[in-house]
Design goal:
This protein is α+β, with helices and mostly antiparallel strands. Helix content is about 45%, strand content about 20%. It has a six-stranded antiparallel β-sheet with strand order 3-2-1-6-5-4.
């Protein structure tokens, strides 16, 4: 996924000048969570200190704002980690008719983004969204593959060992690997 962010920044910079780029992604593990990914020197991913609903404006329609116009949209500054932007463009990331986040560009100078800039960024955002969806699917397949491999390892252990003292550590170690935990407690009925 980080590779996609780097390519997104490179391609967007080629067609529309900006100083900062971030991608806001709705988090799958929470109902109203948001992850903001600052793209640039060292991609940093962090959970936003506000819910996704607070920046719903960025997920609806392409938006442009510039200092000196009306007030900045809610939490616009929090979409960037390198400091506040004096001009902002956001484009929803749509994949298969659903919005998964937004592509956010900021400028340090109060030079507004144009409607042409937004129109040019829309196909870029669409490609980014599809690539992110595909990367997430690939990660899910890899995770499932590790789970199946772990189950196979447990199955082989059951077939090779009849001894519970040798089998139980294998089961707990494998469960910890699959679940990403440090401890596993097995309770056996006597």
């Amino acid at each position: 996924i980080e590779d996609i962010f780097a390519v997104a920044a490179q391609e967007a910079r080629r067609i529309v000048p900006f100083d900062q780029l971030s991608i806001a992604l709705e988090m799958a593990d929470t109902l109203d969570g948001l992850e903001v990914v600052a793209v640039g020197r060292g991609t940093t991913r962090e959970r936003a200190p506000f819910p996704a609903t607070a920046v719903a404006w960025a997920f609806r329609l392409p938006t442009a704002w510039c200092e000196g116009q009306e007030d900045a949209p809610a939490h616009a500054d929090a979409l960037f980690r390198a400091g506040p932007a004096r001009a902002l463009a956001t484009v929803p990331l749509r994949s298969h008719d659903r919005v998964i986040g937004s592509l956010n560009l900021g400028r340090a100078q109060a030079q507004p983004f144009t409607t042409l800039d937004l129109a040019i960024l829309e196909p870029v955002a669409r490609h980014i969204a599809i690539a992110l969806d595909n990367a997430r699917l690939l990660e899910a397949v890899r995770r499932r593959n590790r789970e199946f491999e772990s189950l196979l390892e447990i199955g082989r252990g059951v077939l090779e060992r009849q001894d519970l003292e040798a089998l139980l550590p294998l089961v707990t170690r494998t469960v910890n690997e699959v679940m990403g935990t440090r401890y596993c407690l097995l309770m056996l009925r006597a």
